[in-house]
Automatic annotation (TrEMBL):
Pfam families attached to this UniProt entry: Glycos_transf_4 (PF00953)
Record-given protein name: UDP-N-acetylglucosamine--dolichyl-phosphate N-acetylglucosaminephosphotransferase
Taxonomic source organism: Gossypium laxum
GO molecular-function terms, A-Z: glycosyltransferase activity; metal ion binding; UDP-N-acetylglucosamine-dolichyl-phosphate N-acetylglucosaminephosphotransferase activity
Catalysed reaction equations from the record: a di-trans,poly-cis-dolichyl phosphate + UDP-N-acetyl-alpha-D-glucosamine = an N-acetyl-alpha-D-glucosaminyl-diphospho-di-trans,poly-cis-dolichol + UMP
Swiss-Prot/TrEMBL cofactor(s): Mg(2+)
Localization, UniProt: Endoplasmic reticulum membrane
The protein's Enzyme Commission number: 2.7.8.15
Alphabetically ordered keywords of this record: Endoplasmic reticulum, Glycosyltransferase, Magnesium, Membrane, Metal-binding, Transferase, Transmembrane, Transmembrane helix
Amino acid sequence: PESLGIVVGIVFLVLAILFQYFNFTADSNWLVEYNAALASICFMILLGFVDDVLDVPWRVKLLLPSIAALPLLMAYAGHTTIIIPKPLISYVGQEVLDLGWVYKLYMGLLAVFCTNSINIHAGLNGLEVGQTVVIASAILIHNLMQIGASSDPEYKQAHAFSIYLVQPLLATSLALLSYNWYPSSVFVGDTYTYFAGMTMAVVGILGHYRFNPETGLLTGTRDGTLVNFYLRMVGPKSEKTLCIHLLLV
């Protein structure tokens, strides 16, 4: 089946919505941002499904994540400051810089990057879902380490918020990977790549990141993608082997 990503996306949303009942109270400070994040993810799932059905041009795809991120950006009430790298402090004159509205512009661009990075680095059985599993696992481990190393309740809550969203993403992606791994019995479509990318963007913002029939191998072409670049570097590989190599790299 095509576009199975919509099934995974719906399961994720149901889990994330039900999770509110067990963790949040009516006066929780995180409730508004949490629901805004779910609205952005839901919007991106719908836009991804539209792309699968209508094959939206790339110039439009670049704008879709920015539109989907609007609920999150409008509800964002966190800091708009950045820490200046030490080598640049002497030039800027301060260690912390408040970017104001520019910070929200950056968050919108981050949503565009995360969504399209998953969508571009794709095309092999298991590659889209596999890279999502790798990234989500790294985010989960990072958040757990930060919570264990900190004694600040607000800091811990910020990382816990990230865990609340990345856990169902990892669980649903692992289930999907069992069907999408080579040889794949289902295809995820742009619906999943948009959904996974937007979820990564939300977690980062609110959590305070050609086939050769004779040999049966994939060979690199002049198409400027990371997949083809890797094939030109290491030589022809089977689709299964290539996917494993890319996930490890």
